[in-house]
């Protein structure tokens, strides 16, 4: 049997999908962790991005911080936080939120900042409040770039959540780390396929949502 | 913007091209430059991805160097499946291993139990490229450990006592423990103990595993018997009357093609000198308060013992 | 701090290994990505800037960019561990890391190189043709140099991401600054992990700065 047949056999084994620790459970865990991480990252990145993009204050700081965050090695943060906080969700979630902030912040900030100042001034001349300008003019116009950032962040998070299995958590990374420990290549290949398919499906869904939400004028 | 294209510019681009080619060429040959394959007389010593294995590998290297041979280490290759693979390929020549688990890896059905039986069974069990040198009296077993509170609460003395409380117990250990024959399958077969949950922790029985025990996130964990944390935290090592965890003498497993007779003699000399107390002391120096570098701790030991 | 002082040499060696594993994939990946990106653009005929508007051109562009993006969905750890299977290399071989990271760089750089070629004004290209430049010479002397600024921007992102990804190799025993993470975890040694994180970030900042300088050196004509 070659590796493809073995991987296929792994996928079609009895209970491979429905057992405890089976594919359905791992998929749900993976999605759950990813969603949780993106939620917290958005909670931090979106307000900051909106504020900086709208006011133009602290642009240099945002550019510098997103660059520096990108350079932070996630494995290092994960191991460090795990030593400090022990096992459980807290350590890996914080490590990955830090990873996700960078693309989200970059998307929101650059989206808002790229809105033509003439358009903003026109809105102001019509008597819109700053809040109205932000929510009714800048946000819709910035939507494509914001979604771009969100999709980037999502892809990165879904791929990197695998590393959470390095300390005792679940998710599809379990197959990768456990497979690695015993050099079970079919299981590792299966993990790669599952993560890639999950990422593509989620990305396609986000693309659909993006189409539905963005105003036709900005497409 | 004026576009001023001139010769110098072209030359500059050509220069980058040539530079990158030169760099990429050395990248591909970097393989040998960094000694990924065993070349010449250098003995490459690999180690598993936990600290004690790394210390013993450094001891082997320091001893060989002290005896005038050249040796390098390639630390933390991974679990047994990984470093045995590297040994069989010949990318490393020696890895310190533990006799019982090594035998189980090649022969899961083995009947051998005593240290002598294990060493007798090993040579024929190993794959063709591999052989073992003399075993050391130093022993380090996997062992199931509980906190004294848990031992008291459930009245635990032996692994057999765990079976009655299976549903209340989460077991912590490295991921491979779930599948090794001395791991979950062995515990079930020998003691009918099937923990409610297995918590895989990738720190080689390190601080996360110990902390998880203390915090009662896991009720029992697979720790090494030479782990100084056992004494420090007053953990109880559960008895293993059915010998689920086989005797584990430290033994160098080698790819015979990569290791000269002279090198084998030095490794045998080291094995004869290494005792279980040495392992505990070395582990304590490296992972305890002092945090000594494994290389330093190993070198000090060799300087002191090898005359 | 004590830990760092007594392990300075070790950290230095790991930094050198990390540097090598960060730079080589970026160089090779870029050399491979640029022609792919140029191919994706289609032929630039005079009068019509690109084939971007034709359906064949669109399809080719989409195919190249999307297949590159697909690579991104593969976790780096997975790519590292599967390399021996694909390449037949040793489990401990540095080549696994080189090839895996090169693939990531290609994925990132194809995209930015396409953008870079896009940023070159068709009017400029027409002017070059009018001055008697033939296609090949026009590419090397006009189109590529003008694409450099945007390309350098993409390269900086690729390099920085690459530097943080190299450390994952430590999980399969490939030595880099990432070794400090796995070893520090096993030995309960936060100082070691922090050293690794700081060294990685410093390495990224320094190389990023150097790349930016290289960019401004290559585009001296902008200020001329």
UniProtKB/TrEMBL annotation, chain A:
One of its GO terms (biological process) is glycine betaine transport. PANTHER family: GLYCINE BETAINE/L-PROLINE TRANSPORT SYSTEM PERMEASE PROTEIN PROW, POSSIBLE OSMOPROTECTANT (GLYCINE BETAINE_CARNITINE_CHOLINE_L-PROLINE) TRANSPORT INTEGRAL MEMBRANE PROTEIN ABC TRANSPORTER PROZ. The keyword Transport applies. It is a multi-pass membrane protein. Belongs to the binding-protein-dependent transport system permease family. This is ABC transporter permease. Residues 31-206 form the ABC transmembrane type-1 domain. InterPro entries: ABC_transp_perm/SBD, MetI-like, MetI-like_sf. Keywords: Membrane, Transmembrane, Transmembrane helix, Transport. The lineage of its organism: Bacteria, Bacillati, Actinomycetota, Actinomycetes, Micrococcales. It is found in: Cell membrane; Membrane. The chain crosses the membrane at residues 31-52, 61-87, 93-115, 157-177, 189-209. Gene3D superfamilies: MetI-like (1.10.3720.10). Pfam families: BPD_transp_1. Its main location: membrane. GO terms for cellular component: plasma membrane. The keyword Cytoplasm does not apply.
TrEMBL record, chain B:
One of its GO terms (molecular function) is transmembrane transporter activity. Pfam families: OpuAC. It comes from the Bacteria. InterPro entries: ABC_Gly_betaine_transp_sub-bd (IPR007210), TAT_signal (IPR006311). Residues 41-304 form the ABC-type glycine betaine transport system substrate-binding domain. Residues 288-307 are annotated as: Disordered. GO terms for cellular component: ATP-binding cassette (ABC) transporter complex. This is ABC transporter substrate-binding protein. It comes from Rothia amarae.
From TrEMBL, chain C:
This is ABC transporter permease subunit. PROSITE patterns: ABC_TM1 (PS50928). One of its GO terms (biological process) is glycine betaine transport. Keywords: Membrane, Transmembrane, Transmembrane helix, Transport. The chain crosses the membrane at residues 20-41, 62-85, 91-110, 163-181, 193-218. InterPro entries: ABC_transp_perm/SBD (IPR051204), MetI-like (IPR000515), MetI-like_sf (IPR035906). Belongs to the binding-protein-dependent transport system permease family. Residues 11-215 form the ABC transmembrane type-1 domain. It is a multi-pass membrane protein. It comes from Rothia amarae. It is found in: Cell membrane; Membrane. PANTHER family: GLYCINE BETAINE/L-PROLINE TRANSPORT SYSTEM PERMEASE PROTEIN PROW (PTHR30177), OSMOPROTECTANT IMPORT PERMEASE PROTEIN OSMW (PTHR30177:SF4). One of its GO terms (cellular component) is plasma membrane.
